Amino acid sequence: MSEDPAMEAGVQEVRELLHLSEDMRLGIDVLDEQHEELIMQINHLHRLCECGSACQEEILKHFDKFMIEADKHALVEDALMRILDFPDSEHHMAEHVDFFRLCQKLQVKLESGECVRGDMFYMKNAFIRHVLDDDMLLAPFLIKARRSKREYRKAFAEILVKH
């Protein structure tokens, strides 16, 4: 199979489902980079879904990769909130749980051969809502909470070593 199974299956031009606009940037490099990676993953998954059952194996493989990246991202955010005592951390972490529940439902559909375009749009919208609502409340707190770059880097290093 070629590098791009969607192209091989005849899916030529599929518009990106999502892009990281300036109003979605948090101003925290590590989180913005993770958001960019997740968006790339969502777009690629959307593209694979457009080619349908011809890309079933690739869809499942790519969805697993997306879930690993989403899990890493949630772990980083959750750890930062705990380390820095974010006051709304319970709500934020509950939003992560809800997003993963949505992804589990999508995974069941993908495994059964259903790759429903509406489900991809629903996942995209859930991601955007989380970034614009929940992460935008978290970002100013994280920026204010870092007493020095050294302390902030130390917190990130602790998180990355654990995960």
Account of the protein in words:
- This protein has 6 helices and no strands.
- It has helices at 5-8, 29-50, 56-83, 89-111, 117-145, 149-162.
- Helix 2 (29-50) runs antiparallel to helix 3, helix 3 (56-83) runs antiparallel to helix 4 (89-111) and helix 3 (56-83) crosses helix 6 (149-162).
- The chain has a single domain (27-162), classed as Up-down Bundle (Four Helix Bundle (Hemerythrin (Met), subunit A)).
- With 163 residues, the chain is mostly helical.
- The radius of gyration is 17 Å and the shape is elongated.
Largest sheet: none
Count of beta strands: 0
Number of helices: 6
Mean pLDDT across the residues is 80
Number of domains: 1
Estimated radius of gyration: 17 Å
Q: State the distance separating the first and last CA atoms.
A: 33 Å
CATH superfamily: Hemerythrin-like
Low-confidence regions:
5-14
Structural class: mainly alpha
Shape annotation: elongated
- Element pattern in H and E: HHHHHH
> Could you please say which CATH topology applies here?
Four Helix Bundle (Hemerythrin (Met), subunit A)
Residue share in β-strands? under 5%
CATH architectural designation: Up-down Bundle
Helix content: over 70%
Name of the level-1 CATH class: Mainly Alpha
